[in-house]
Amino acid sequence: MASAYRTVSAEEAAAAVRDGDVLYCSLTSLDYVLDAITARRDLTEVRIRLTTPGQDPGWLSPEAGDDRFTVDFQIFVGDFARFATDSGHASYIPNLFSTELKQIERPDDCAFPDVFVTRVSRPNEKGYVNFGPMMFNKRAYVERCRTVIAEIDDTFPMFYGDCTVHVSEIDYLVEGDPGPSDAEMRAKVEGLADAARRAALLDLLDTTPARWLRGTLRRTLARFHELDPALIGPGLGKIPEPDAESRAIAANVAEVVADGANLQIGVGEPSSSLVRAGTFDRKHDLGLHSEMIIPGWTRLIREGIMTDAAKQFRPGVAVAAGWAGCTPEDLDFIAENPRCELHPSDLVLDPKVMSANDRVHSINSAINIDLQGQINAETVHGSRMINGTGGQPDSHYAAMYSEGGRAITVMKSTALGGTTSRVVATHEPGTVVTIPRSLADTIVTEYGIARLFGKSTRERAAELIAIAHPDFRAELRREAGQLFGLRP
What we know:
Glutaconate Coenzyme A-transferase
């Protein structure tokens, strides 16, 4: 017998937001109800907290004089909304997945959200909803926020793990907006004047399976048909093949990844290319305990390379906080598959939980690194935010504390078409240090491997210069001589 539940209109749910509330929208949220909240002209002093938003109902680029909402980001910013931090309209809350929920313990210090808005599957026969492929911190906010608003997404298949909640814990359940039909979407895209945007969106239409992404795709096309084509995909459309530098980095990473390693791999570049570039093809008994995943990783399970046997937490099962970063083919393998599980991000990325596994290998990308080993993965040109920390610090720390663990940072040696070195003598003023020098471990570029752990600043400088692009090594040596007395 099916469980009884009641849905309400988006407008009725939006009426639950009060003046002065802190409203948190879950990661990549694309919710019809957000438009209804924004339409309420009576609201004042509402603080919006976002994590990688996928829509702008009006608070990222507000009308002149509209000061009803202030906007903060945490954990991620994302390509879509970066203009809001660039302009200074939005701010950023430095935080970690493993510590974000401690805010509720300090009400005098921190403004924890009052209202949580998310998407869920339609309730099953027992009244449970699934949070879909992007679990992360959703259930924690359902359990802790005064008001919970959830929009039904009928495209969500079932995912295994600790990623459900009973419908009784949701205050307002809203029928999702299905968006335009397939024919309407195609007609809208074909009518776009910009050839590059039109081609990118048509490719997205043709390569995205209806199985689970169709609802998101419909809303994306309906509301964001003016997206820059560079922001469309990856993970939806076709993913470009790894370039020569990425393949060289992948080969170098293969030298330091041990058999039996339990992997955390970030979704940045060049880390996202590692599976497709063959890094793990000759390894044995790998495991996955990761925030997110990268394209093609399920092949490692299908080919017996990844067994997840050598784990303390959920042995025999691949574990993540969200199935972001993968391909539609990966998700077809994961959905309704007990071999793969989602668990809350504050648990998965708790360094104590992660480091209980032996041989944790965290592999994350960086923007640049200075000669002391200070790693920046968040800002460019000093203080301009590119993204937040994500799970990089948590997993890096866990790898350092894990028995047999290794924290690997990967990056191409240059940026901006080869005109700028990613190995720098000193960071520009305002640069965010994501990983401090005391925890720097193994750095990989296409030119080799720098092993920094346990080395002096002089030794670190020499190691890093050796993997910098040859065009910049002479200048880096001169600067290292002034900073650390390194001989040319």
